[in-house]
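During the reporting period the student researcher (J.K.) took over the structure-prediction task from the postdoctoral fellow and processed the backlog of single-chain submissions. One of the processed entries is reproduced below for the supervisory committee.
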Amino acid sequence: MRWQRFWFGLVLGVIISVCIACTQTALQTSPPNQPQATSPTEVTEASATEPESTVPRELPPATQQLLASLEQELYEPPRGDLRMVVMSDLNGVYGSTDYDPDVDKGMALIPFWNPDLVVCSGDMVAGQDLTLTSNQIQAMWQAFDEHVAAPLREAGLPYGFTMGNHDASSALGINDNHLFQQERDLAAAYWQTPTHDPGVEFIDRFEFPFYYTFRYGDAFFMAWDGSSSHIPEDKLAWVEQTLASDAAQNARIRILLGHLPLYSVAVGRNEPGEVMDNADQLRAMLAKYNVHTYISGHHHAYYPGHRGDLQMLHMGILGSATSKD
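J.K. obtained the following structure tokens:
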């Protein structure tokens, strides 16, 4: 049963989302604006611009072994201009320094699709607990490095990500101070260590790892801090200024990474704090600067949808945290 859940989640949450055609005409062609909540939409089919190599790729032994154990062949979509593996919500229970076997299986299967890069919409570790010590938080990030980040570095795969509430929550407490400042400081320390470089081509590191931009080819990526429902006005000013920049507007596609979605897609999640505040205003800003896709997590529910021209990819859960986390 556990394997079946992993298989189903991986097929929906990763396979369908690995190919995005980086052509404005393809991704700007969306159904008319809908008055109701997000609705299902097909992921834009990629059009191959270059012939596939006929030279077989030598897959790592772990990948070969896992593929041999499957009851059916994995689907590999036609290769487009950009191939991404997208994942989200890898965390286990609070303070966990281990990962569910499904995470390791997912990492082992990534080479099969031979992606250009991997992106994650947050919750890489299991924080958001005020009882955790600095040593425990550092141990969680070390475990993440061993299970996820190091294998990606060794494979030479760029890793774009956004911070989740269990990574470094931006929730505010008394006097508008961050409740989980220690977790934010230690998360920043991990990512700002040169040996943990995610391998992306940065455009603006602004307040990395909370706010930053990078490019892959003709694609422009932005990560904002959606680890809580509120983005401060000064940070929104940076977001808008950056989306208006030549680097963003001259790109063939603009993709935004954030943890909380704009709108609820799961039962029990349509509550304040579970989605971004002022979602309609945020969506209007993204539309103004022709952001094509917003990739999010948090709701643990795979759901590709759209509002107006904005495509929204809501990711499922790869880790073992419950749907209430």
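The committee noted the following: The domain at 2-28+79-314 is CATH 3.60.21.10 (Purple Acid Phosphatase; chain A, domain 2).
J.K. will present the remaining backlog at the next meeting.
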